[in-house]
Specification:
By secondary structure, the chain is of the alpha+beta class. Helix content is 25%, strand content 7%. The protein has one domain (13-54). The protein has one helix and two strands, in the order ββα. A hairpin with a 2-residue loop joins strand 1 (13-14) and strand 2 (17-18). The N and C termini lie far apart (37 Å). Bound molecules: iron/sulfur cluster (SF4).
Length: 55
């Protein structure tokens, strides 16, 4: 992908740009935040924190 400016709280966003550099499986069947690849970074962190607590 080219350089894409993005300010979403997405796991692929870094310093205001999208770091997704390959087309992966679409994560959202419905487009969230205007992007089909959007993954909320807070949900990822909360999920991994729960995993750490359960281990
Ligand atoms: S995958 Fe979509 S929402 Fe996520 S940083 Fe890239 S452009 Fe933004």
């Amino acid at each position: 992908m080219g350089i894409i400016s993005c300010n979403s709280d997405c796991k692929y966003q870094k310093d205001g740009y999208c770091t997704l550099d390959s087309i992966e499986k679409i994560n959202n069947s419905t487009v969230s935040q205007g992007c089909a690849y959007y993954i909320n970074i807070k949900e990822i962190k909360e999920s991994s924190e729960k995993d750490e607590l359960n281990n």
